């Protein structure tokens, strides 16, 4: 299956270090070589990069590994295809508009015999179960809250309900964000770490690279990183429980 990477911060931060290790799993240290993508939120805007080739050999991925785009919310994905051809339209993250905001979604898993009816306003472009699930989530939110984004607790409640229904159809780990909040749903595997003062060093699992965050951060900085499998081997990551959904805001996990 695929792998996920997310970042949520209280100040704009680059994801170069985490993406260095994560992208190596796209054909070098792991088998997720059927495409990749990454989305960076900047205010109301969103930069989205997608390719239907291994991230480890991608010139665009190489550029991004060394290009410090600063963002408070990032979602990345490396694909091992289970449904849908290896084509650009089937690469994650997927993006749509709701309530005048961009929403981005990436999924790790496989939803069996999933052919939702009456998709409504949102239609899938590709053939993946992931994009169909994303469209169903957005349509459900749109029907419950037709005018504007609701208070976070109400949004969480509806999203948790539809996530439970979809998770009953198979493996459903996902990341979902509008640039203000980042939602993480665990079906099988998803872990996170919150880095804040006092900062230390981190060493990647997939590359022999160490970074001292004390040289790059301020005392009030806070960064949450979410990944399918922990990216570093000298830090303590928290593994989410099956069925658990967290909301990350300003670098901290919230749960209702």
Mean pLDDT: 94
**Helicity, as a percent range:** 10-25%
Compute the number of strand runs.
15
Low-confidence segments: none
Radius of gyration: 17 Å
Short account of what is shown:
With 256 residues, the chain is an alpha+beta fold. The protein has helices spanning 16-24, 59-66, 129-144, 152-167; strands spanning 3-13, 36-42, 45-51, 71-78, 94-98, 101-111, 170-177, 182-185, 191-196, 201-203, 210-212, 222-227, 238-239, 245-249, 252-254.
Blueprint (SSEs and pairs):
Layout: E1 3-13, H1 16-24, E2 36-42, E3 45-51, H2 59-66, E4 71-78, E5 94-98, E6 101-111, H3 129-144, H4 152-167, E7 170-177, E8 182-185, E9 191-196, E10 201-203, E11 210-212, E12 222-227, E13 238-239, E14 245-249, E15 252-254
Antiparallel strand pairs: 1-4, 1-12, 2-3, 2-4, 5-6, 6-7, 7-8, 8-14, 9-12, 9-13, 10-11, 14-15
Helix pairs in contact: 1-2, 3-4
Structural overview:
This protein is α+β, with helices and mostly antiparallel strands. It has helices at 16-24, 59-66, 129-144, 152-167; strands at 3-13, 36-42, 45-51, 71-78, 94-98, 101-111, 170-177, 182-185, 191-196, 201-203, 210-212, 222-227, 238-239, 245-249, 252-254. The strands form three sheets. Strands 3-2-4-1-12-9-13 form a seven-stranded antiparallel β-sheet, with helices on one face. The mean pLDDT is 94.
Brief descriptors of the model:
15 strands, six-stranded antiparallel β-sheet, 4 helices, alpha+beta, seven-stranded antiparallel β-sheet, 256 residues
């Amino acid at each position: 299956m695929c792998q996920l990477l997310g970042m949520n911060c209280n100040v704009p931060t680059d994801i170069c270090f985490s993406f260095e290790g994560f992208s190596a799993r796209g054909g070098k240290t792991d088998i997720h070589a059927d495409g990749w993508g990454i989305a960076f939120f900047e205010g109301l805007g969103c930069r989205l990069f997608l390719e239907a080739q291994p991230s480890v050999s991608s010139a665009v991925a190489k550029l991004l590994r060394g290009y410090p785009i600063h963002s408070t919310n990032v979602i990345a994905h490396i694909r091992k295809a289970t449904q849908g051809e290896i084509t650009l339209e089937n690469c994650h993250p997927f993006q749509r508009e709701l309530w005048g905001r961009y929403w981005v979604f990436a999924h790790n898993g496989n939803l069996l015999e999933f052919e939702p009816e009456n998709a409504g306003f949102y239609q899938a472009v590709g053939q993946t179960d992931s994009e169909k699930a994303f469209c169903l989530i957005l349509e459900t939110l749109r029907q419950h809250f037709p005018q504007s984004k609701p208070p976070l607790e109400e949004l969480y409640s509806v999203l948790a309900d539809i996530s439970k229904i979809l998770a009953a159809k198979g493996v459903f780990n996902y990341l979902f964000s509008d640039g203000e909040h980042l939602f993480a749903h665990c079906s099988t595997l998803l872990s996170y770490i919150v880095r804040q003062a006092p900062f230390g060093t981190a060493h990647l699992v997939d590359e022999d690279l160490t970074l001292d965050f004390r040289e790059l951060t301020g005392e009030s900085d806070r960064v949450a990183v979410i990944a399918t499998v922990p990216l570093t081997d000298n830090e303590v990551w928290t593994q989410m429980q099956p069925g658990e959904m967290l909301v990350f805001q300003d670098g901290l996990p919230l749960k209702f």
